[in-house]
Amino acid sequence: MSAARPLTTLRTLAVIAALPLLLTACGYGSNSTDDGKQTPAAAAGAKKLSADEVKIGYFPNLTHATALVGVQEGLFQKELGGTTIKASTFNAGPSEIEALNAGSIDIGWIGPSPSINGYTKSNGKNLRIIGGSASGGVKLVVNPKKIKSLKDVKGKKIATPQLGNTQDVAFLNWIADQGWKVDAESGKGDVSVVRTDNKVTPDAYKSGSIDGAWVPEPTASKLVAEGGEVLLDESTLWPDKKFVITNIIVSQKFLKEHPDVVEAVLRGSVKTNAWINANPDEAKASANKALEKLSGKALPADVIDPAWKSVTFLDDPLAPTLNTEAQHAVKAGLLDKPDLKGIYDLTLLNKVLKAEGKSEVDNAGLGAE
């Protein structure tokens, strides 16, 4: 395996570890929190699987609604029987990867860039991507008084959630495709890329300190509610308008020792996605209820309604798009060419899909199996 430099420098990662409140990506922005108040208890007398407990992690974000809804509605717990599910929420990709490495969580929902970063930093030894969860939900929202067309982005201040995060890489790649130059590390150049916590991006927009942002939902819709306009939906840049925004990852140790538990969680994920797609309004309300429990405040209709419509929930990890995102990071100078062979193990997912009468999914030649 070739040596891979993480999506952020080691020095940057050290700062990230010390200053978690500055973190942001796909909703990143704080340390983990125990989500026990949302987690349903295991059914009394139900048969346990090979582990007494499975610890899962995800973000309080609509692109992680599979986990939000699956926990909220007890769909994961139903598949786990007497094995207890313990949920923790994260607002930082590096924090979730650290938790996975430390054994604080066993399975997590996370974006592609942290997945790649975690895999390459450990030389392929700490995690596997075992399924997909969501596609889309990322937009370039701008101040229409300052930016009226894509060419007007040049010379403006545009926020992304975090240096080297999934949206940051996508925006840097888009900038390069326009023929413009930006130093990836500093964000300075033909466009000023301002790394800003999603939690404060709407305030930064209102104050005029940024002219727009390339961000995930619901931040994008929050900006629209503040008068911003969607200039570009990232899905239009991808084949079939699909690209991975959320993966399901697992500790390789936990996968080896408790495949039955991993299979149960994947079964819960597949059934949750099916329920979400069959009952979009109920699922939206469930996700918002879960967010209210976590943050103390539900999203208003003018934010959650458009945000929810822009996210697609699916089981396919869209492996070719993860490989493309890695190539974009290499082109931006944030990642040495990585060897991603083995990052996927879709054996259990395909077993679940087959049992549900669904089509199996492909690992784009990057499988461990």
Summarize this entry quickly.
With 369 residues, the chain is of the alpha/beta class. It has 14 helices and 12 strands. It is 39% helix and 17% strand.
Largest sheet: 7 strands, mixed
Q: Average pLDDT across residues?
A: 89
> Share of helix among residues?
25-40%
Give me the Rg, rounded: 19 Å
N-to-C SSE string, H for helix and E for strand: HEEHHEHEHEEEHEHEHEEHHHHEHH
Q: Which blocks of ≥5 consecutive residues have pLDDT under 50?
A: 1-32
Protein structure class: alpha/beta
Give the percentage of residues in beta strands.
Answer: 15-25%
Q: So what's the overall shape?
A: globular
Number of strands: 12
Adjacency order of strands in the biggest sheet: 1-3-2-4-11-5-12
Number of helices: 14
- Report the end-to-end length measured between terminal Cα atoms: 17 Å
Notable features of this structure?
disordered N terminus, 5-stranded mixed sheet, 369 residues, alpha/beta, globular
Q: What can you tell me about this protein's structure?
A:
- This protein is of the alpha/beta class and 369 residues long.
- The protein contains 14 helices and 12 strands.
- It has helices spanning 10-18, 65-72, 75-80, 93-102, 112-121, 166-177, 201-207, 219-225, 252-257, 259-278, 280-295, 301-309, 319-332, 347-355; strands at 33-34, 53-58, 84-89, 107-110, 127-136, 138-142, 157-160, 192-195, 212-216, 229-233, 244-251, 311-313.
- Strands 1-3-2-4-11-5-12 form a 7-stranded mixed sheet, sandwiched between helices. It has a 5-stranded mixed sheet with strand order 8-7-9-6-10, sandwiched between helices.
- α2 crosses α10 (259-278), α2 packs across α11 (280-295) and α10 packs across α11.
- The two termini are 17 Å apart.
